[in-house]
Fold this sequence. Notes:
Layout: E1 18-24, H1 29-40, E2 47-51, E3 71-79, E4 83-84, H2 89-97, E5 106-113, H3 122-133, E6 137-138, E7 143-146, H4 151-170, E8 184-189, E9 224-230, E10 240-245, H5 267-276, E11 284-289, E12 304-305, H6 306-313, H7 322-329, H8 335-344, H9 349-354, H10 361-367, H11 378-383
Parallel strand pairs: 1-2, 1-3, 3-5, 5-6, 5-7
Antiparallel strand pairs: 3-4, 8-11, 9-10, 11-12
Helix pairs in contact: 5-6, 7-8
Amino acid sequence: MLQYSIECLPSPLQQGKNIVVFYGSQTGTAEEFANRLSKDTQRYGMRGMATDPEEYDMSELSRLTEIENSLAMFCVATYGEGDPTDNAQDFYDWLQETDADLSGVKYTVFGLGNKTYEHFNAMGKYLDKRLEELGAERIFDLGVGDDDGNLEEDFITWREQFWPALCEYFGVEATDEDSSIRQYELLVHNDVNMNKVYTGEMGRLKSYEIQKPPFDAKNPFLASVSVNRKLNKGGERHLMHLELDISGSKIRYDSGDHVAVFPTNDAKIVTDIGKILNTDLDIVFSLNNLDEESNKKHPFPCPTTYRTALSHYLDITNPPRTNVLYELAQYASDSKAQEFLRKMASSSSDGKEALPIRPKIIVYLHSCGFGSSFPGGASWCLGG
């Protein structure tokens, strides 16, 4: 497995006030939060990066002290019965066994969990305590997010308190809080080989058609759903009975094994968004990361079409997260719509009162006049 030592971090992290955000993520939420925190650093004249601990030699953590004014941040989810996520398992094992001296390492932790489970936020709490035991210096209190409540709001509240505290600690001035930093460049492909265009694959191109054993956590078997039946009646949540076709895989499912479901968004909602944005959904495009030092070159598999991105890669049915609202505000048709979106993105009492029940993204597009505001830039806003 490829692992990066401190020398392998991008060169901007070798100078100035530098922040590394490690994430322990199973479904992508902790990784998303880490990326948002990393992006935040630019607003304060700092340079940051989000990093998978599985690709970093965590025994080198003590060497962060060699970088002036450095900070290690951790966004970690608790998985199952108080366990670390798969990508944080090795780091967890190392923490349990090591007697490393982390004196001088500055850190903070935000944990993601669900209070309906007995071991709520066990990984975040353990990491916060263990780093202190090894001599590291906590510079901001542990944050805990509850997915059974409002995980996004928990994160935003913690984040809005964290950055002023960090600025005071490092002695830096905060910039305009509402400034938007463009992360991706939109590239439209007018002449492209359609065999090289992603059509919904989550990883390797044509992976649904050609699967290569052996299958494991790193190379999962992509099974089709043969039976999908609702078991309960009424209520907001659906209890579903699913049957997966694993014939030809040479694997079997045992109790306790993990299954991930890749859903497809409602085609009507996708079509409606295309109409609102006055966009040809079959245009082939790529979103390229403007940060050349980032390990993640695209937010989702590219090149692809707007239709595929909206159908398979983007969440268009849940209320949009606050970072999406901030990005949409940059394209609002008037100042009132822009102010409304920014208020909605805030964790302040005014923001909570602005709209008690936060609607789906399509409602924002309707109400704020986006159909005429950014016919060419819509994909970047939705994908950011």
